[in-house]
Amino acid sequence: MDWLWELPECPSTNTWAKKNSAWLEHGQAVFTQQQTAGRGQWGRAWLAPAGVLTVSFVLDVPGVVRPGFTLGVGLGVIYAVEALCPIQPGVVGLKWPNDLYANNRKLGGILCETMPLNPGTRVIVGIGLNRAVDLTQAPQLSQAISLSEISQTVPGPYELLAKMRFYLLQAHSVMTNQGLTPLLPDLNRYHILQGQQILIQREQEIVKGRVTGINASGQLGLRLASGETITIAQGQITEWD
Ligand code: BTN
């Protein structure tokens, strides 16, 4: 695979991709089987015991990154998993804005980080996916799930990486040319929070409402108890049904 850089060990593939960005090209990726200091959303640590797939893809976009880019990436990862695993469509779902879920437990997460290019923007698309993790040996991941629990066969890492790349490049091209709109039916179909009552922390306030859907700007629609519908661009969901 001439687009894949594999490191025996690496603190964080996202950090490595950023440091080596000068010579990395669009569509290339860095992968390790041993990520020792992974980073997640909100500055959290991302733990990766054996069997977690950790990779960062390099995707260049013209101009600025459209809102909702991470959601398109998430859909690409789901398509890759569904293409390779004998599971029913929808078993793996998205949780706005950057999580992959199955059976109401976290299967993976996405961390997109941007860097200026001239012209355009480079997105380092970091993906962590619990591929074949023995969660009994990882008590710190008690809320997680592994692909090996929901699929009778589990694809190897290279097979998954190649399929992910295919669907990520496809999502990238759709989003670059047409935005998020063509992806909205699937985004809302795969969204595990659709119609659910949630609590979301937005800056200093907690908002409670029922999820009405994801819009073309990647925002989350919420119907409040007052009947008013609002959209949220950024926030951390703390509880759901
Ligand atoms: C999250 O759920 O908070 C996002 C997790 C993203 C983890 C991946 S693993 C590969 C890449 N390198 C990192 O340091 N983080 C991302």
TrEMBL record:
GO terms for cellular component: cytoplasm. Keywords: Biotin, Ligase. The keyword Lipid biosynthesis does not apply. GO terms for molecular function: biotin--[biotin carboxyl-carrier protein] ligase activity. Residues 1-176 form the BPL/LPL catalytic domain. Its EC number is 6.3.4.15. Pfam families: BPL_C, BPL_LplA_LipB. NCBIfam families: birA_ligase. This is biotin--[biotin carboxyl-carrier protein] ligase. It comes from Pseudocalidococcus azoricus BACA0444. The lineage of its organism: Bacteria, Bacillati, Cyanobacteriota, Cyanophyceae, Acaryochloridales.
